[in-house]
Amino acid sequence: MTLLNPAKRPFLSPSSTFASSFFGRTLHMQQIRRNLELLAQTDLPVLLEGECGTGKDVVAELLHLQSRNPGRLAKLSCVSPEEITSVLDSLLDGLLEGDAVESELATLLREGGTLLLDGIHELDLPSQSKLLIVLKQYDTGSVGGTFVRVISTTTVDLQGLIDAGKFRIDLLYRINAVKVMLPPLRERSEDILGLVEFFLEKHSREAMRSRPLLSQDVLQMMEGYYWPGNIRQMDNLLRNFVIMGSEEVITRELMDSRNGVTRNWALDEVDVSHPVALKEITRQVTQDLERQIILKVLQANGWNRQKTAKWLSISYRSLLYKLSDFGAAQDNQSKVHTIPSSALRAANY
């Protein structure tokens, strides 16, 4: 469990340049910003849903900072079974024995603040049951006169997990008074240049270097790029650019080094022979991209699923869920389509 202190990171202030760049100009993000301002004045638990790298933790910290009584902000990773089991078992033992538990989570629940449940979709059913007991027992939202807000993040639709029997519906009701959907960066092309400017300025200042310039060609390439790793990928890419000082760092990431195929390769698979909603096309392309990345890494690791999960920085349980979702098996030696190396690297962000 990690105690966060966003107040010590000035760029995370709701009125900061980063906040302006993060929310950008798109109508969807501006509406999210207004909704967060309203939510900050309530006691409601919030569920943040979005792809990896879309800024769910940033939104959680901004919401915490704007809350009426911020208190502490503690992040509990649901990706680590050992961590979540240890924390929840300790609390439950204390409840059963009537003893005061000395832990960061227990202190937060007694004194008030924000509990960030990171990657709640990763919890197995036994851990979900334990978490539900803790949330009910401490009655988050009103603990001894203090206020505890629960913010949960997920990269998958929890209703789909409920339908598959992998997530408790009563836990969803407990954490999902309001759901905020964060769009992927590819749906925010008009916000890309603002984010580029912010990250260049930030990393140049941190590295104590003069701010490098990007050519118009590279900027246009970045505006049209698919950004499978979203904002986190851009952040890492521009940090490397500031350090290395060469645009080749960026162009190599955005283009396939072998045949010059650009990031729009995924659009070749889209069927536009009949009317179809843009949202549905985006969903299909994203799923196909993820499927091909996973299959390629599986193949590279000799179809060893545990090694593949570590390689992709996801839990073994999450990998199994994704494999079952598109019907892949360990011994499935199906042909894997060629994908850009940039997309493969993005899977590790």
TrEMBL record:
Gene3D superfamilies linked: 1.10.8.60, Homeodomain-like (1.10.10.60), P-loop containing nucleotide triphosphate hydrolases (3.40.50.300)
Keyword tags: ATP-binding, DNA-binding, Nucleotide-binding, Transcription, Transcription regulation
Membrane-spanning intervals of the chain: none
Cited InterPro entries: AAA_lid_NorR (IPR058031), Homeodomain-like_sf (IPR009057), HTH_Fis (IPR002197), P-loop_NTPase (IPR027417), Sigma_54_int (IPR002078)
CDD domains per UniProt: AAA
Protein's UniProt keywords contain Transcription regulation: yes
GO BP term, pick one: regulation of DNA-templated transcription
GO-annotated molecular function: ATP binding; sequence-specific DNA binding
Residue intervals of the Sigma-54 factor interaction domain: 22-243
Name this polypeptide is given: Response regulator with CheY-like receiver, AAA-type ATPase, and DNA-binding domains
Organism listed in the record: Terriglobus roseus (strain DSM 18391 / NRRL B-41598 / KBS 63)
Classification of source organism: Bacteria, Pseudomonadati, Acidobacteriota, Terriglobia, Terriglobales
